[in-house]
């Protein structure tokens, strides 16, 4: 009998061997071991700081009551981010598993999917032409003045011949 999908998470199982933890080897790379160690060190450190604040609050420092609550919240956030990254890695592994080969009658292979996050594209902006087609006389004079100042960097505005 298959498991109830509403209450059973299969992110760490492989399609070939349901009920196994075949995808877990991805979490034992050197980078992941460093993440596991960092998570444990941060959680223990944050909980230790929380206990220290509790002892300070018991000695009469009222401000420490707030910090005694804050440090365990930080530890919980570290565990949440670590768990989310573990689940994301295991689900990505399942999505990357090769699917059955398409039949020859199915037609040509589909185009590669575009990446979810793309690099930003820089575009040089060009000033738009006026809608009426006629240039404002003061704007033309001002632009001529600015281009003269740009061409003569050592000049003062009073030296402008126009």
UniProtKB/TrEMBL annotation:
Keywords: Membrane, Transmembrane, Transmembrane helix. Residues 1-20, 92-119 are annotated as: Disordered. Residues 102-119 have a biased composition (Low complexity). It comes from the Bacteria. The chain crosses the membrane at residues 32-52, 64-83. It comes from Micromonospora narathiwatensis. This is DNA-binding transcriptional regulator of glucitol operon. Residues 7-17 have a biased composition (Polar residues).
